[in-house]
Amino acid sequence: MGLLDSYFEFEEHGTDLRTEVLAGITTFLTMSYIVVVNPQILSAAIDVGNRTDAQTVQMLAVVTLISAAVATFVMALYAKRPFAQAPGLGLNAFFAFTVVLGLGIPWQTALAAVVVEGLLFIFLTAIGAREYVINLVPEPVKFAVGGGIGLFLAIIGLQAMRVVAGDASTLVTFNPVFAQDPVAIISVVGLFVTFALYARGVRGSIALGIVLTSVVGYAASALGYNAFPADQAPQGTTLLSSSLVGDTTLTYDPAGYDITPLIGAFIEGLSNVDALAFSLVVFTFFFVDFFDTAGTLVGVGQTGGFLDEDGNLPDIDQPLMADAVGTTVGGILGTSTVTTYIESSTGVEEGGRTGMTALVVALLFVASLALVPLAAAIPQYASHIALVVVAVLMLRNVVDIAWNDITQAVPAGLTILVMPFTFSIAYGIAAGIISYPLVKLAAGEIDDVGVGQWALAAAFVFYFFVRTSGVLAGQL
């Protein structure tokens, strides 16, 4: 214990081993859904010829766990920050549905793009350029990131809890069959129980709320209650498919643990590459991952009180390097871009302040390899209660924004609003970065904007053009 205390400097950070372990467990429980979701998304695009669909899903689950563990170990032992890493949601969907299925790029070539992106990140981080670019992000955008991520987390969580549903007219609406849906009812009860535990100052309140909600869900299922069928929702309304229990099927297949067809597949992908098309794919991966990671580090750092007086995360190059190494390792193993998870904020809210939190998460990822099917034992709606709790807590960060200054309010407001409405952290940051120099120019405060900030805004405008104009598709 003395060795851990000395290495992670518990006393200096105002924490202890018990707090760090609870924080790590909380973060792991909150983000464990990725072990199930990532393989499901990637298996739609990755076809390993001599493997069944079930074996492919299990292979991808193993790769997901290994890449998440390696990246988080680097975060824990090198960066010593309480940030957890895993293949990123959104980036895996872009990999599968846009690059491979939509544009027809072989999945091996898509993995090659991930590896190249990771190596580029390592180089930029090593020379300090990545930190320099992040420090170009305007102060109001940095202070707004936490609130924007909070709203982003809230909509993800409320959808999984089936409190909100898709609507053909209003995009989202309150679940019209709420009173008939045990998932929604149990979720809301679990949410308020978790809030009550948190308000009472109970340590591990978020993790405890997740466990209690899961137990109630299993009990309700045993009594014969089931989720309101998604395909029977009122016309024009879309409910996310859900279940009162997680996947507890214990089916072991040795072939599912043999990941050799995925490891190094990127090498084959490099053998037949169209330079322009490949560059555009790498460019897209780069931008989304770069600013998703930057936003997450700043947002979670703000929650934990890690930022300095200028809104910067001290020694950010170390967690950035952990992210870069994770992305490279993930691509080599056979999964999409690894990134720092916004769910890390749940552990930070539980008091996690050092790399010990990340170390616990990494060890739990490794332990999960022995029981891959049990990684989904926590129902999604139960784990996502944590996202709503943290979303509410993260909204407190907006008090740091100078709302009475229009040149601060516009970029901050756009950052916060665009994230949930576009379902993208990167897009929210982009909106703030682009608007900052424009509103400063209009207000006659052009001297406040550096050349680098104009360049960053221009780069994002170019990115949006490439991403939405069809140029990328036209090159393939």
Automatic annotation (TrEMBL):
* Primary site of residence: membrane
Superkingdom of the source?
Answer: Archaea
Spell out where the chain crosses the membrane. Answer: 21-46, 58-79, 86-105, 111-129, 141-162, 182-199, 206-228, 275-291, 356-375, 381-399, 411-434, 454-474
Molecular function per GO = purine nucleobase transmembrane transporter activity
Instruction: Could you list this entry's UniProt keywords, alphabetically sorted.
Output: Cell membrane, Membrane, Transmembrane, Transmembrane helix, Transport
Q: Which Pfam families match?
A: Xan_ur_permease (PF00860)
How would you describe this protein's topology in the membrane? Answer: Multi-pass membrane protein
Which compartments does it reside in? Cell membrane
Q: Quick check: keyword rRNA-binding in the entry? A: no
A GO cellular component annotation in the UniProt record: plasma membrane
Q: Which family does it belong to?
A: Belongs to the nucleobase:cation symporter-2 (NCS2) (TC 2.A.40) family. Azg-like subfamily.
What is the name attached to this protein's record? Answer: Uracil permease
- Species annotation: Haloprofundus marisrubri
